[in-house]
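Q: Convert this sequence to structure tokens.
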Amino acid sequence: MTSASPMAGRGHGGGALPGIPGGPGPAEPAGIPDGVVPARAGAGGRRSVRVVGRSLLALTKPRIIELLLVTTVPTMMLAARGLPAAGLLMVTLVGGSLAAGSANAINCYLDRDIDAVMRRTSRRPLARPAPLAVIRPPEALAFGIALGVAATLMLGLLANWLSAALADAAIVFYVFVYTLGLKRRTASNIVIGGAAGCFPVLVGWAAVTGTVGVVPVILFAVIFFWTPPHFWALAMKFKDDYAAARVPMLPVVAPAPVVARKIVLYSYVMVAATLALAPYAGWIYAAGAAGLGGWFLAEAHRLRSRVARLTGGAAGGAADPAAGPAAGVTEGTCGGLARPAARPAPMRLFHASIAYLSVLFLLVAVTSVLPWGRW
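A:
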């Protein structure tokens, strides 16, 4: 269970949700990014257990994992049509957290060069200069692999091997498809790579039922189409960071009106996916999902309107006037260094997306235990 987007918890190292590429995650607080380990190694290079432990925990990006678990528990409740066994719930959550931590730690190992360049991530454990580093890169890689092995054994032996295989698939997808394959090569990185943050719902469903059916696939689709609007809003805010690191996130290589238009498009598809769950979740869920969807679409259109005002009403071909050297770059390439764009307040949509997904899955959980409200 992992994320390729800044979801996933809550600072996006690549992405995470899921995760999520990020998978589906909330932003890192200004001045104190997720993964910060301010303490230095002791005198003479000796490392205290406490500092090493904090650094290892930071590698797992725990705030991303929080959001992944928000989607796992309601999925398990829907699969069980009530509360799943406490033991199974605990095993799935711990095993899923270990799997997500594994993927995130390996991501930190692989992306340590660009993490050092980006201001938002420059204080993560492996991005710090050697004299201040607490964890060495080989240690981080070994730690990530160990977490993956632990997750596989826990889920396989105490839940079932299907859930373990799905968790492993999430790790492999996040590391090899997103981090190594897509992130630095294409502006579609988060669209495809964001699938990694969708796996927790498959893992949770499989842990309860031993199968994967239509319902978890719909939930997978919800998070899949949620991830681009969520992460592109964050990337609009930090486009200069990504440009400096030569990571071709969509806001770096495309004008702001193009990004805003795609955010609106994916938002509509996401809302449609949430409504596809209505036959299985009931009319109370359907009413709530429709209301939430209307609110989120209004926020997406609000962002697009603000972008249009700031860019003089450009329809999509015009470059962002404040984008500097990155403006007008062909999509799919990296524009190099860029000045911060004119601020269309994208973080409002970013935070709204987190609230939206959390409330939507809370609605799934509540309707799963209600004795009424089904068709």
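The chain has 15 helices and no strands.
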